[in-house]
C-alpha cells in the first residue's frame, strides 16, 4: 500500500529544496526523496565547494588547507539544510532512490528496503550527471575523476590532465594551476569555450597560459591507460602522462534510472524531460525543475523554475520560462569571465546594426589597487535603440558587476544609464562608466 502525500519531490536540487519548504508552509504534506545529500549538486559538489576553493587558491594557496575548509563549509551547509527541512513537521525527508511505478506512484529504494509513495503532484528535480565519453580505458577510478571525484582528492596532483575545454574544464584548469599543478587541457575542436567570441576565448587562453596551463587544441584522446602511479592519454599527437585525469566533457540530465516510461513522462533523445513554458511535463500533474529539463545548468535557473511552478500552483500562473530573456553566467576562473546577452558573432548573424566597444582591465583604477590588471571588458550596443545587446567581462569581480548590467538590460534602459551612473570609487563597477563612454553617438 503506497503512503500518500500532496506533493512528492524527487531529488532535492535548489529548486526542489525550496519548493518543499514553500509547499509545507502552505499546509501541504510533502515527501522529499534524495539519494545523496539535500540541496543537490550546488551545495555539495558544485557551486559552493568549487568557489570556496577558487577563493582560497588566491589567499592561502595551500591545497590541503583549502580542501579542509571546503569540506567544513559543505558539511556546515549539509547540516543546516538537513535541520531546515527536518524541523518542518509536514515534510518527510526520505534517503533513497526514486523510480516511477505509474504516473502517481513511486518506488523508493532505501538502505532499509523499499517502499511505495503516491501523490497528487510530483516535482522531478534530479539534476544532471557527468558524461563519460566512450574512450577505451576511460573508466572512473582513483586517477580518472569527474568534477565530483576531483573534490575528494587527498593531495594536489603534480600533473593534472583535463579532458574538455568547456566551462567546468576551464574553471578547474585555472583553479589547479593556482594551487601549483602542471595542468594540460585537451580539447578536440580548434577553439575552447566554443560559445564565446574568438577574441574573448583568445584572451582567456593567454591568461591560462600565463598561469602555466598547457592547452592542446585539435587533440582527440583516443584511449587511456592507467596504473597505480599515473594515467597515460594516447592522442593523435603522441602520449601524454598525468597523475590525475579530470573528465569534463559535459553533463546530461539525470533521468536514466527514473523509469519515466512507467509514468508516460516524455524526454528528448538526450534524456532531458520535455516541459512546456510552465515546466509542466507531458503528464498533467508532473513538473520538472532544474538541469533535468536540459535548459541552462545553473542554480539560479533551478530557483527560477521554482518561482514558475509556484506561480502556477498558487499565484496568477503568468510566470513562464519566456520571462528569462537575459541569463547571465560567470566562469569562475581567475579573473572571472562573466557574460550576458548576445556575443558579437551572434549579433552579426542576426544582422543587427550595432557597435562594439572594449576596454582593457589595465585601464581600471581598481585593477591597479587589487594588483590584477588581466582581462578585457567588451560590450555591444544597438545603434538604433541604444540598448545593450551583450556584454563580456573578463575581469576580477566581474561576477558581481554583471548583475548591474543585467538589471539595466532587463529594465530595457539605454546604455547611457551605465555611462552616466554614479558608482563608488575605486570599484570594478565604475568601469562601466568608461566602457559605455566609448560608444560613439550617431
Ligand atoms: C563543478 C560544478 C560547478 C558548478 N558551479 C556552478 C556555479 O558556480 N554557479 C551555478 O549557478 N551553477 C553551478 N553549477 C551547476 C549547478 O550545480 C546546478 O545547475 C544546480 O545544482 C541546479 O541543479 P538542479 O536543481 O537541477 O538539481 P541538482 O543540484 O543537480 O540536484 C539533483 C539531486 O537529485 C538527486 N537525485 C537524482 N536522481 C535521483 C533519484 N532517482 N532519486 C532520488 N534522488 C535523486 C541527486 O542526488 C541530487 O542531489 C555547477 C555544477 C558543477 C558540476
Summarize the SSE layout with pairings.
Layout: E1 3-10, H1 14-25, E2 30-34, H2 40-44, H3 47-59, H4 63-86, E3 91-95, E4 97-102, E5 105-110, E6 113-124, E7 128-130, E8 144-145, E9 159-163, H5 167-179, E10 182-186, H6 198-210, E11 214-216, E12 221-226, E13 231-235, E14 238-242, E15 244-247, E16 251-253, E17 286-288, H7 299-314, E18 329-331, E19 337-341, H8 344-349, E20 354-360, H9 365-369, E21 376-382, E22 388-394, H10 398-410, H11 416-419, H12 431-437
Parallel strand pairs: 1-2, 1-6, 2-3, 6-17, 8-15, 9-10, 9-15, 10-11
Antiparallel strand pairs: 4-5, 5-6, 7-16, 12-13, 13-14, 18-19, 19-22, 20-21, 21-22
The structure holds flavin-adenine dinucleotide (FAD).
Main attributes of the structure:
442 residues; single chain; 30% helix; alpha/beta; 5-stranded parallel sheet; 26% strand; globular
Describe the structure.
With 442 residues, the chain is of the alpha/beta class. It is built from 12 helices and 22 strands. The strands form 5 sheets. Strands 1, 2, 3, 4, 5, 6 and 17 form a 7-stranded mixed β-sheet that branches. A hairpin with a 2-residue loop joins strand 4 and strand 5 (105-110). The longest helix has 24 residues, at 63-86. The radius of gyration is 23 Å and the shape is globular. The model has no long low-confidence stretch (mean pLDDT 96). The structure holds flavin-adenine dinucleotide. Flavin-adenine dinucleotide (FAD) binds next to helix 1, strand 2, helix 2, helix 3 and strand 4. Flavin-adenine dinucleotide (FAD) binds at residues 10-15, 33-36, 40-42, 46-47, 50-51, 97-98, 125-128, 147, 168, 254, 257-258, 290-292, 297-300, 302, 332.
Amino acid at each position: 500500500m503506497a503512503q500518500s502525500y500532496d506533493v512528492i519531490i524527487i531529488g532535492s536540487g535548489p529548486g526542489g529544496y525550496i519548493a518543499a519548504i514553500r509547499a509545507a508552509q502552505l499546509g501541504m504534506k510533502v515527501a522529499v526523496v534524495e539519494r545523496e545529500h539535500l540541496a543537490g549538486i550546488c551545495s555539495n559538489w558544485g557551486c559552493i565547494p568549487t568557489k570556496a576553493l577558487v577563493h582560497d587558491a588566491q589567499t592561502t594557496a595551500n591545497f590541503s588547507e583549502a580542501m579542509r575548509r571546503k569540506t567544513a563549509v559543505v558539511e556546515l551547509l549539509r547540516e543546516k539544510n538537513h535541520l531546515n527541512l527536518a524541523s518542518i513537521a509536514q515534510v518527510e525527508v526520505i534517503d533513497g532512490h526514486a523510480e516511477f511505478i505509474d504516473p502517481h506512484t513511486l518506488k523508493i529504494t532505501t538502505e532499509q528496503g523499499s517502499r511505495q509513495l503516491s501523490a497528487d503532484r510530483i516535482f522531478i528535480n534530479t539534476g544532471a550527471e557527468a558524461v563519460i565519453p566512450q574512450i577505451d580505458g576511460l573508466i572512473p577510478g582513483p586517477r580518472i575523476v569527474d568534477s565530483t571525484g576531483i573534490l575528494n582528492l587527498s593531495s594536489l596532483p603534480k600533473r593534472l590532465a583535463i579532458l574538455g575545454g568547456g566551462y567546468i574544464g576551464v574553471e578547474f584548469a585555472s583553479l589547479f594551476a593556482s594551487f601549483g599543478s602542471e595542468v594540460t587541457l585537451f580539447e578536440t575542436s580548434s577553439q575552447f569555450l566554443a560559445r564565446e567570441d574568438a577574441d574573448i576565448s583568445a584572451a582567456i587562453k593567454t591568461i591560462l597560459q600565463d598561469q602555466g596551463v598547457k592547452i592542446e587544441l585539435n587533440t582527440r584522446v583516443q584511449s587511456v591507460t592507467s596504473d597505480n602511479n599515473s594515467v597515460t592519454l594516447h592522442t593523435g599527437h603522441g602520449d601524454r602522462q598525468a597523475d590525475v585525469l579530470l573528465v569534463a566533457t559535459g553533463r546530461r540530465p539525470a533521468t536514466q534510472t527514473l523509469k519515466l516510461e512507467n509514468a508516460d513522462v516524455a524526454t528528448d533523445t538526450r534524456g532531458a524531460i520535455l516541459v512546456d513554458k510552465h515546466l509542466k511535463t507531458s503528464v498533467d500533474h508532473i513538473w520538472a525543475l532544474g538541469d533535468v529539463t536540459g535548459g541552462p545548468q545553473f542554480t539560479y535557473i533551478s530557483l527560477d523554475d521554482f518561482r514558475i511552478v509556484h506561480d502556477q500552483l498558487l499565484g496568477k500562473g503568468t510566470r513562464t520560462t519566456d520571462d528569462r530573456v537575459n541569463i547571465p553566467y560567470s566562469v569562475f576562473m581567475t579573473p572571472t569571465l562573466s557574460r550576458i546577452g548576445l556575443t558579437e558573432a551572434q549579433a552579426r548573424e542576426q544582422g543587427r546594426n550595432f557597435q562594439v566597444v572594449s576596454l582593457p582591465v589595465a585601464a581600471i583604477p581598481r585593477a591597479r589597487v587589487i594588483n590584477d590588471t588581466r582581462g578585457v571588458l567588451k560590450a555591444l550596443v544597438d545603434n538604433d535603440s541604444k540598448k545593450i545587446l551583450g556584454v563580456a567581462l573578463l575581469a576580477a569581480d566581474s561576477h558581481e558587476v554583471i548583475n548591474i548590467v543585467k538589471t539595466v538590460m532587463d529594465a530595457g534602459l539605454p546604455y547611457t544609464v551605465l555611462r552616466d551612473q554614479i558608482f563608488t570609487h575605486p570599484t570594478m563597477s565604475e568601469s562601466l562608466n568608461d566602457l559605455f563612454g566609448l560608444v560613439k553617438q550617431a
